[in-house]
Amino acid sequence: MTSIMSWGWPALFLLGAYHGINPGMGWLFAVARGMQEHATKAVARALVPITLGHALSIGLVLALAGLIQIVLPLGYVQMVVAGALISLGILRILRRRHFAWGGMQVGFRDLTLWSFLMASAHGAGLMVLPIVLHAASTSAMPMGHEHMHMAASNGPWTGIAATLVHTLGYLSVTALVALLVYRKFGLALLRKAWFNLDLVWAAALIVTGCVALVA
Amino acid sequence: MSLWRPDPTFYPSPKMAMAAPPEKLAYVAMLNANGHKRPDALGVVDVDPASTGYGRLVGQLDMPNTGDELHHFGWNACSASLCPYAPHPHIERRYLIVPGINSSRIHIVDTKPDPKKPQIVKVIEPETLAARTGYASPHTIHCGPEGIYSSALGATNGDGPGGIFVIDHDSFDILGKWELDRGPQYLAYDFGWHLGFDTVITSEWGTPNMVKHGINPEILLKGGYGHKLHVWDLRKRRHLQELDLGAEYQMALELRPAHDPTRAYGFLGVVVSLKDLSASIWLWHRDDGKWSVKKVIEIPAEPADPEKLPPLLQGFKAVPPLITDINLSLDDRFLYISCWGTGEFLQYDVSDPFHPKKTGSIHLGGIVRHAAHPRAPKTELNGGPQMVELSRDGKRIYFTNSLYSPWDAQFYPEGVRSWMVKVDAKPEGGMELDPKFFLESGDLRLHQVRLEGGDTSSDSYCYS
User: Fold this and answer.
1) Can you give the pTM of this predicted structure?
2) For residue B463, is it within any domain?
3) Count of CB atoms within 10 A of residue A123's CB?
4) What is the CATH number of the domain that holds B49?
5) What is the count of structural domains for chain B?
6) What span, in angstroms and rounded, lies between the C-alpha atoms of B446 and B455?
7) pLDDT tens-digit profile of A12-70?
8) What is the ipTM of this complex?
9) What's the gap in Å between the CA of A27 and the closest CA on chain B?
C-alpha cells in the first residue's frame, strides 16, 4: 500500500469528492428517491447502491488495468490509458448524447447498475487510473528495471485501497450534498448551481490523459 | 449549443415552475381553411399586457407546403431534462416541433434568434417518418427525459395501429417506434406520463382513415371510436393494462396526468356518450400497483331546436357538449374543460380528484348559443372553446375555437370563423374573460397554443 506516495491518497479522495459533487453522478437521484417516498430514509437508502455502483465502476477499471499489467509493461499500459482518456474526452465534446438508463422506480439492483453505468460512461475509473499507475511506476523505480506493477508488487491491495479511498471521497460529498439539499436547501439551487460539468469533465479527461503521457 | 447553466425555463418541480415569470409571447397553430391554395402557418401572438401589440398577431411563419393541417405541437426540451436518471439540463428550450396531422410532415422551428420571427430549420418528410417508424399522422408532442416523444394516429396506410415514436432532441432524427410490446392496443391519440412511477398512459381516437373524412356516424353508432386507456411501462416500453370505459363512451381523447410526480392519478376528457350525448371527465388512478378509471364529471347535452342544428345533430334535438380539450393547473388544483359544442368553458376545483367541484363557467360561441365576447358584444361567434393552454402560474388561460377541419365542417357547417381569447383566473376559483384580449383570425383557424418559456401542458417533472 505504500506504493502510492503521499499526495496520491488525498488526490484519490479529492477526485472522489469531485465525482460526488456532480448532480448527474448520484446525489440528485438520492434526493429524487427521498422526494418520491417522502422520507429522508429513502435518501439514505438510495446512497448505498449509488455508492456501490460507483465503487464497482472504479474497482473494475483498476482491476482490469492490474490484469493488463501482467501481460504488458507498465509504460505501455500508461500509454493505453492516456490514449483512452484523451479519446473519451474528445468523444464527450463531439458527441453530446447524454446518458439515459433506468427510471424513477428503481430498486437496489437497478440503482447500483445505474450508478455503475453512469460512472463508467463518464470515464470515472479511467480518471483515477493515472494516479494509481503513476504510483506503481515511481515505486518501481528504486527497485531496478524489472516491470513492477500493482498486481505483482502489492497484489490487488493497492487497487482495492485506491478504490476505497476514492469511494470514501465520493460518498462523503454525495451524502452530504444529498442530505443538505433534501433537508435544508431544496432543489431550486439546481437552476443556478448546476454548471455544465460535462465540458469541464471532458477537459479533465483530456488533461489527465496528457499528464499521464508525460508523467 | 450547450448552456453553461440549466435553461432558465426548466424547473425541478411543478411548484417551483409556478413562480416562472409571465409569458410575453404565445405560439399558435394556424390552419388555412380557405381551400388548399395557401399553406398553414405558425402564428406569434403578443400576450404582454404592457405592450401596444397586446392580443394581436405579431408574427407568422408560413409552412413550406400546403395541406399540412397543423394541429398540436411542442418544445424540444423542458423540465424533464432535470430528471436524475437521464440528466441533460444544459440543452436549450428553443425549438418547436410542429407536425401536420394530415401531411405527416414534421417541421422543426427555431424560436431563438428572434422569438417573433421563428424560422424553419429542418423538415422531416412523411416518407422519412414512414420508413423509420411505420407511423403516420403525428399528433401530441412531449419532451421527455430521453428525447422528444410523439404520438401518431395510425400506420402509413391510414389504418392502425397508431402509437408513439421518439425523436432525438439534438439532431432531430427520428429514432424509431417506441413500443416493444403493444399488447391489445390499436387506436391512439394522446399520451401522458407519471414520471415518478415510470408509467405512460395513452388514449384512443381513431385511425387516420376513421377521422380524416369527419365523424363517420356508422362507426360512431357502433361504438367504433376509441373508448379505452392503455397503461404502459415507460422503461420496458411494454403494455401493462387496458382500462375500458365501455363502448358507449366515444372518443377518449385528452389526458392530463397530475403534475406532482408522487401523485398517481390524472384526468381524461371523453367527447360524447352514445346514450345521451353527454360528455364526461374520467379519473384514472393507481391503487396497490393496479390502475383503474372512474367517471367523476358528467356534462349533459342541452336540448335545442333542430332547425338551429347542423344535419348531423338534427335527429337528436340536442347540442352535445363535446369535451375536446382539458387542462390541469400546475398545482393539480384546477381542471379546465372545453365544451366545444355548447360553447362553454368550465373550471373545476379538483383538489379532491374523486369529487370535483365546479367553480367557474364562461360562454363563448357554441353551435346554438353563439355567445359573444365583451370586446364585440354584438358579434355572434361560432366555434367554441377548444384548445386550452394555461400559464404556469395558473393565472392566465388562453383558448382557441377550431378543432379539426373535417369535424369543424360537420358541427359548424357555416365555416368556423376563428378567434383566440384570454381568461383571467382568480386564485381561489372563478374566472372571467379579459375584455382587452380578443384576436380574430377569420379563415386562419387557430388551434393549439404554446406559451413562451413553457406552459402547463408542456413540461413534466421528476421532483415534487
Assistant:
1) 0.94
2) no
3) 25
4) 2.130.10.10
5) 1
6) 17
7) 999 999 999 999 999 999 999 999 999 999 999 999 999 999 999 999 999 998 888 88
8) 0.93
9) 9
